[in-house]
Write a structure and sequence with these properties.
Elements lengths: L7 H27 L4 H12 L2 E2 H8 L3 H13 L3 E6 L2 E9 L1 H12 L2 H8 L3 H15 L1
Antiparallel strand pairs: 1-3, 2-3
Length: 140
């Protein structure tokens, strides 16, 4: 069977994507620690900054078990950063939502993430859109 060699550009792109992901995760963990949060807690705050979410959806987005999310939400709730509310569409479902303090913490966390923001700022709007579109296509 013939060997399938990957072209050098593909190898370099894969390595660069790995480097970007590793650097982003390192900065994210450092930023979380500066706010006395775990990485998972910071990711939940970031998700909830967009909209309140049911626990199951948070678990899917984090790729973890719902029971893990319950523990994360419990700890964030005990710090006054998150509150649980019944879902108006289905009162059997509880939504996790940021409190005012949680929203402020999520904003400070987002502001402290320079690595992802700084290199993107050097790209034009058209380049950022092209990068976004290529990444979406890769993940489709």
């Amino acid at each position: 069977m013939p060997s399938r060699r990957t072209d050098p550009v593909t190898v370099e792109v894969v390595e660069l994507i790995g480097d970007v992901v590793a650097r982003y995760h390192m900065e994210y963990e450092d930023a979380a620690a500066r706010h006395q949060l775990t990485g998972a807690q910071a990711r939940v705050l970031t998700l909830l900054a967009v909209e309140p979410l049911p626990m199951r959806r948070i678990a899917r987005k984090l790729r973890c078990e719902p029971s893990n999310v319950t523990g994360i939400i419990d700890r964030l709730e005990s710090r006054g950063l998150v509150a649980r509310h019944p879902d108006p569409a289905d009162r059997r479902v509880k939504l996790a939502a940021l409190t005012e303090e949680g929203a402020q913490t999520a904003d400070r966390l987002r502001e402290s993430l320079d690595f992802a923001r700084e290199p993107l700022a050097g790209l034009s709007a058209q380049e950022r859109e092209a990068l976004r579109d290529l990444l979406r296509r890769m993940l489709a």
